[in-house]
Amino acid sequence: MKNLIPIIGCMILPVFFAESVHAQNDRQTALASSILKDSRLDTIQSRALQLLTGLSAGTSYGEVWIRDFNTFINGSLQVLPRDTIKDMLLLFFRMQGDGGDIVDGVIRKDKANVAYKYRYSDRAPGWAAHKNTVETDQESSLIQAVRKYIVATGDQSILFLSLSDKTILQRMEWALEYLLKERWSEKYGLITGATTIDWGDVQPENGWGVAINEKTKWAIDIYDNAMFVIAIQDFLAMKPVTYKPTRNWNQVAAGIRKNVRKYLWEPTTQKYIPHLYLNGSPFSPSFNEKEILYTGGSACAVLAGFHSKAEIAAINKQMTQAAAKEKFATIGITVYPPYPAQEYPNMHPYVYQNAGDWTWFGGRMIQALIKNGFIEEAVDELKPMTDRVIAHNGFYEWYDVQTGKPKGSGDFRGEAGVLLDAITLLKKWAAGHQ
Questions:
Q1: What architecture is domain 41-431?
Q2: Could you tell me the pTM of the whole model?
Q3: Which end of the chain is more exposed for a tag (fewer CB within 10 A), N or C?
Q4: Residues 6+ apart with CB under 8 A from 205
Q5: Domain ranges of the chain
Q6: DSSP states along 323-359
C-alpha cells in the first residue's frame, strides 16, 4: 500500500491543477466580458476623443506642452489630420536650443504674455517657446511622442526630414546627448534636475519656482531617469539599422537601470527615495523626506521595465494604501504624505503637486498594471477615476483628496489622454480573453 500513495498523489495533482487553470480561465472570461459591457468606459473614450481635437494642455493654458502632448498624442491622432500632429512635433524641433535642449511649451507669439523667458526661432516665425529649467523631462517626452506618432501612423519619413543641418533622427539623439552633457551626474551615473515634488515643476522656496536660480538644490530622482530610459528605448526602436548612433545607448540605459537600483531603490521598503542630493537638501535636518511615497515616478519606473511582478505588486499596494488614507484619493495622489508647509512654502499640503490627485499619472499606473498582467487591479483602481470624470462631466487637471472637488485647468487633455490609452489597453486585453 505504501507504494500506491505517491502514485495516487501524482494522479490527484494534475486534476487539481487542471481545475485551477479552468477556474482562472473562467474568471478571466467573466472579467473580459464585464470590461467590454462597461458603458462608462465607452463614455470616457467618446468624451476624450471630443476633447482631443485641440492641442493645448487645457482651458487654463494657451501653450502646447510637450510633457502633456506626449500623453494624449495617441488620441489626437484618431481625431486630427496626421499632418497637424506631425507639424506640432516638428515645431518643438524647430525650437530646439543650440545645445540640443527641448522646450517645455510653444505658443503663438501674440499670446506669449506670461513671465517666462521666451525663446524665438527663425525656423518658426510667429511662435514663442519657453523652458521650465527645473525639469528634466522635455527631451524624453518629445522622443516618446515621436515614437507614438510613428507606431500609430507608420510614417517613418519624419525621421529623415531635415531642419537646418540635422535630420529629426539626429536631433533626437542630440537631445539625448544634451541630457548627458548638462543633466548628468558622473558620480552616480544618473540624470539630474532641480528639487521638485516627484514629477513636478516647482521648487520648494517661495518665488518663481519653475526656473533654476541661486536657491536651486540639484538632485536625482526616479521620474527623470525612468523617462530618460523610456526615451532611449523608443529612440533605439525607431532608428534604422543603418543609422550609426553617437554612442552605445543600450549601454547607457543599462547603466542607469543598475544605478537606479543601487542609489534610488530601497529593497527593504520596496519604494524609491524621493531625492539623492548633490549640493545639499533644501529641507530641515529634522525632516524625514524618505517617508514620502512618490507615485508618479514609481509608475514611470514600472513602465520603463525596472521591476519584477512581485515588486510591481508591492509598489501598487503602497499606492492603494496611500489612497485609502484620504477620503477622495485614488492611486493618482501625487505623493503621500504631503510635504509640510514649512518645508515646501511654494506649495502647501494637498495643493497641486503636493498630494493633489492627478489622473494624469494615476492613469499611467493603470497602463503599467495592464501591461504587466494585473488586470483585476487595473479595473478596480481605474473605476474611481472614471467615476469622477462622469460625475463632474469633464476632465480636470487635479482633484482635492479632502473634498473631492476638481481643481486646476478644465478640459485637461492630459487626463483625457491617459484614460483613453488605459481603456484602449484594457479593451484590447478583454477582446483577447473572450
A1: Alpha/alpha barrel (1.50)
A2: 0.95
A3: N
A4: 215, 282, 345, 346
A5: 41-431
A6: HTTSTT--TTBSEESPPPTTT-TTS-TTBTTBT-B-H
